[in-house]
Design a protein that fits this description.
The protein is α/β, with parallel strands linked by helices. The protein has helices spanning 21-30, 53-57, 70-83, 100-105, 126-132, 168-191; strands at residues 10-16, 37-44, 61-64, 88-91, 110-114, 137-144, 154-161. The protein folds into two domains: 1-107, Rossmann fold, CATH 3.40.50.170; 113-192, Rossmann fold. It has a seven-stranded mixed beta sheet, with helices on one face. It starts with 9 loop residues before the first strand and ends with a helix.
């Protein structure tokens, strides 16, 4: 166990659906001395999510939940979160909407990263929408998860310029680079 000055790291679960680029980034951050969190659990709603390989790589407990019946899935998730003493949840490309009941249970302890400058472009296809609307700026936002989609209190935002050469793919790549810096910064901000 690494020594921490005066406090233990907060047990955290990360929820993913895809490649896990934010996940690997949060795991690496959690291993640093200045990280207030440790990653103890990885949940996915997709059995083929590429990001699950990081659970094996870093020997982190992982679990796949089928969301066909959201109520059953969430009950199982909550049971496991409790059993593992998880106190904090990071959503990292998790493509399911959590129920009000689930969010209430973890009140104020769930955060998400969204690839737009919220409140602009909640939901999907954020980069397409920004380009279509000829926006000058795009970016990413880390926010608290509430019952309303992408509407919780903003923790941190990063604004980047959209150039004339940008399309939704190049813009997504640029924004993702900043997501990787913003997420750890937001986590530090919360627990400082």
């Amino acid at each position: 166990m690494e020594k921490l000055t005066g406090h233990k790291k907060i047990k955290t679960a990360v929820f993913i659906s895809g490649t896990g680029s934010n996940l690997i980034n949060i795991i690496k951050f959690s291993k640093t001395k200045r990280s207030p969190i440790s990653i103890n659990l990885i949940f996915s709603n997709m059995s083929k999510a590429k990001g699950l390989r990081y659970a094996n790589q870093f020997k982190i407990k992982k679990k796949i939940f089928n969301f066909k019946n959201i109520e059953i899935a969430e009950m199982k998730m909550l049971t496991l979160l409790e059993k593992q003493k998880i106190k904090f949840i990071c959503l990292a490309g998790f493509m399911r909407i959590l129920s009000k009941r689930f969010i209430k249970k973890f009140d104020g302890k769930i955060i998400n990263i969204h690839p737009s400058l919220l409140p602009k472009y909640k939901g999907l296809n954020t980069h397409d929408r920004a380009i279509k609307n000829k926006d000058k700026f795009a970016g990413c936002t880390v926010h608290y998860v509430t019952e309303k989609l992408d509407s919780g209190k903003i923790i941190l935002q990063k604004k980047i310029k959209i150039t004339a050469k940008d399309n939704s793919v190049s813009l997504a790549k640029k924004v993702l680079k900043h997501e990787h810096k913003l997420y750890p910064a937001a986590i530090k901000k919360i627990f400082n």
